[in-house]
Design a protein that fits this description.
The complex is a heterodimer of chains A (290) and B (431). By secondary structure, chain A is mainly alpha-helical. Chain A contains twelve helices and two strands; from the N terminus they run αββααααααααααα. In chain A, strands 1-2 form a two-stranded antiparallel sheet. Chain B is of the alpha/beta class. Chain B has a five-stranded mixed beta sheet with strand order 2-1-3-12-6. A five-stranded mixed beta sheet of chain B has the order 9-8-10-7-11. Chain B has a two-stranded antiparallel ribbon with strand order 4-5. Classes of the chains: A mainly alpha (290), B alpha/beta (431).
Chain lengths: 290, 431
């Protein structure tokens, strides 16, 4: 690359880099610095406390509870969301006739703002007047108080999250599926493969880049979930739906412990980085790019 | 030339424009509507038209309102006047962004300081100084369904913990899914029942002598109340409706619990909405303990100082208006928060108001009969909101059987002590 085009490249990149630096890199660096400080609740004055914030977190049984809740939330959202959206996408791909209508139907939740969606779920989950328990009553089952029951609240929030996310995933899977050449599937069929074998040995490997992308995005989204938790349960009952992000919000904006919240942000950053690195490591072996 | 004239005209218009004062409040429903009406009437007073206009803005719940103002102060964008929950008193003072009401009162002999009910004044005074105007004051009381009482042959409300339990047991009808008692899962009742037994909530005389450093959640008084609560829930004679104030009221009004502990602030609404006869009584005492009393609850109006002098003075005039007899009378009769003025109570008694609504009198009597001591003066701490959250999550764990009373209270004490330690460290380090 000659000098001129390199200058042009930097020039074109500059606006993006400037915005990123101002709104992402600078706050991130500040969080890192603040995680070693204790910040006064009424001003921005602070003083150095070393690793105290981290020590407080690691010694707190509550923080370990939020770690556990976050991992379960990850499990309850990412896997069902991937399985459901992939299944729906494959079915839609095989039935082009229904595709447009169902694609729109599944995408609708994505278009609704997450707080509106959560409000709808509050009505559905209402223990006495909600639709879910009404439907269960018809089947002769006495439904729990979904959002107030410590054993069910996290599942309830996860269901609302999955419902909201599958539409987005389906679009990606459909795009991936359409780009797979039909000849390959036909060839496999001619060789005597049944439809499961076609899916397992032809479609899935060719879809692996999309699957990889969607799973990385899903994990990150799940780790950063906030709106639905804030509206459905505000982290309760008994902290059973308080995830790392929700705890961070409460420490920063309810308890005004900016230093402590910053160290939680750093831990969360590390966790997301770790999860993504593990996914990339696995991808090296399994993902086939064309 | 025309242009210039226009500019001059606009300038004059701007100079003559009324000073707009923002007023953040946390009142919803009928209370919110009444509050807005009172503000509008202030704006329509002849001396204010074209001069001052107060703009009421809803700032969310008490907790949200307190958080919002703290965030706004960091950006120096606070309102002129703010309605803040009782427990925000210490933290509001510590922001150093408020203009203490006392400074205005000292300059203004027309302020009705002498009329302020002593227990209310004692609650809101810090180091002998009144920082904010106690606007809406409340107390916990026992509401009961008179018809349900008659059905099981009870002719008076319970007076002690053991009677409360006994009454609740008799009022429980398992077949019909009815229990004897309910109240919202909030730390407020915990605090009130500790004070009712004459015990302080935090050390240093409830944080009134010096900064509190320790939460006293493991005193016999605290354990006694938590245990009573737990035993009644386990026996199925108490309905736990979780956090939030409305579910308990809905439960009581639907006739599913015959007794309810709630704030006086809803007394008129409850009496009006109920399809059965409702009566009220003071909260029960622990057996054999008659010292102590209840603590003032509610909210107060704060004036913020980082504004132009004229606007701050106008804010004070608004606050003084909210303390006037007429406003307090309508506020009391429209909500159930009790009057802050002694002359008003006397006036209402003369007019026979409490003969017509004896339910509204309970809280006033209860507060007047409370012993004067640090326990009933109420606790002061900068981390009160957090302390409440800790206690509430402890109670949730106790009621769900996940922790014993001692375990959960110990945990809440540990969390609150740590918050106090950190808070106090700032005050030392960053003077």
């Amino acid at each position: 690359m000659n000098r001129k085009s390199s200058a042009l490249a930097w020039g074109l990149l500059f606006p993006t880099l400037a915005v990123l630096a101002l709104f992402v890199l600078y706050p991130a660096a500040q969080s890192f610095w603040l995680s070693f400080q204790d910040v006064e609740p009424f001003s921005k004055r602070s003083f150095f406390v070393g690793f105290e914030n981290y020590q407080v977190l690691f010694n707190s049984p509550d923080y370990w509870q939020t770690v556990r809740v976050t991992l379960f939330f990850l499990l309850y959202t990412v896997i069902p969301s991937l399985v459901i959206s992939l299944t729906v996408a494959v079915l839609l791909d095989a039935n082009p006739f229904f595709q447009n209508m169902f694609r729109t139907l599944f995408l609708l939740p994505v278009a609704i703002s997450s707080s509106m969606a959560a409000m709808l779920w509050i009505f559905i989950y209402n223990p006495t007047a909600g639709f879910l328990n009404y439907a269960l009553d018809v089947l002769g089952i006495h439904g729990p108080n979904w959002l107030a029951d410590p054993d069910w609240a996290l599942v309830a929030v996860a269901v609302a999250t999955v419902w909201k996310e599958i539409g987005f995933n389906i679009i990606f899977f459909l795009a991936g599926l359409t780009s797979i050449p039909l000849e390959l599937k036909e060839a496999a069929e001619l060789d005597g493969a049944n439809s499961w074998q076609v899916f397992r040995y032809v479609t899935l490997p060719l879809l692996s880049p999309t699957l990889f992308f969607v799973s990385v995005v899903s994990v990150i989204n799940s780790l950063q979930s906030f709106g639905q938790i804030h509206i459905l349960t505000t982290g309760g009952p008994m902290g059973e739906t308080t995830t790392l992000v929700y705890n961070l919000y409460r420490d920063a904006f309810v308890k005004f412990r900016t230093g402590l919240a910053s160290s939680e942000a750093v831990i969360l950053f590390g966790l997301i980085l770790l999860a993504t690195m593990v996914q990339f490591r696995m991808a090296k072996k399994r993902v086939h790019y064309g | 030339m025309k242009c210039l004239l226009l500019i001059v005209f606009i300038q004059v218009q701007l100079l003559g424009a009324p000073g707009k004062l923002t007023f953040w409040h946390s009142m919803t429903g009928e209370k919110g509507k009444l509050l807005v009406r009172l503000v509008e009437e202030f704006n329509r007073l002849p001396e204010n038209v074209g001069q001052v206009e107060v703009l009421p803005q809803f700032a969310g719940s008490y907790e949200e309102g307190l958080n919002k103002i703290r965030t706004a102060l960091l950006a120096k964008q606070g309102p002129h006047i703010a309605q803040i929950t009782d427990i925000g008193t210490q933290v509001m003072i510590d922001t150093r962004a408020v203009a203490p009401l006392q400074e205005f009162i000292d300059q203004d002999p027309s302020f009705p300081l002498k009329q302020l009910l002593p227990p209310i004044k004692r609650y809101y005074e810090v180091n002998g100084k009144l920082f904010s105007l106690p606007f809406a004051t409340s107390n916990p009381i026992l509401y009961y369904n008179v018809e349900a009482f008659e059905k099981v042959g009870l002719d008076r409300p319970p007076k002690t913990f053991s009677e409360l339990k006994e009454w609740a047991r008799r009022l429980t009808d398992r077949k019909q899914g009815k229990t004897g008692l309910t109240w919202p899962l909030t730390s407020w009742f915990f605090e009130q029942f500790i004070a009712r037994q004459g015990q302080v909530l935090v050390n240093q005389a409830n944080g009134r002598q010096a900064r509190a450093t320790e939460a006293l959640y493991l005193t016999p008084e605290a354990i006694r109340f938590a245990t009573l609560w737990k035993e009644m829930a386990d026996e199925g004679i108490f309905t736990n409706v979780g956090r939030g104030w409305d579910p308990a009221e809905a439960n009581f009004l639907a006739g599913r619990s015959a007794m309810m502990l709630h704030s006086t602030s809803d007394v008129f609404e409850v009496v009006r909405k109920a399809t059965f006869r409702v009566s009220t009584a003071p909260i029960p005492l622990a057996d054999g303990i008659s010292t102590g009393g209840t603590v003032v609850g509610g909210n107060s109006l704060w004036i913020l100082k980082d504004k132009p002098r004229t606007e701050v003075e106008a804010s004070y005039r608004f606050v003084r208006y909210m303390a006037s007899k007429d406003v307090q009378k309508r506020w009391h009769m429209g909500t159930g928060y009790f009057p802050i003025r002694e002359d008003l109570i006397k006036e209402l008694e003369r007019e026979g108001f409490y003969k017509k609504f004896p339910a509204a009198k309970t809280a006033i009597e209860q507060l007047k009969n409370s012993a004067v001591m640090p326990a009933t003066q109420g606790a002061l701490m900068g981390v009160f909101a957090e302390a409440r959250d800790n206690l509430e999550s402890a109670m949730e764990r106790i009621l769900a059987g996940r922790m014993s009373v001692e375990q959960a209270l110990k945990r809440a004490k540990f969390q609150t002590d740590d918050a106090l330690r950190r808070y106090n460290r700032f005050l030392e380090k960053l003077k």
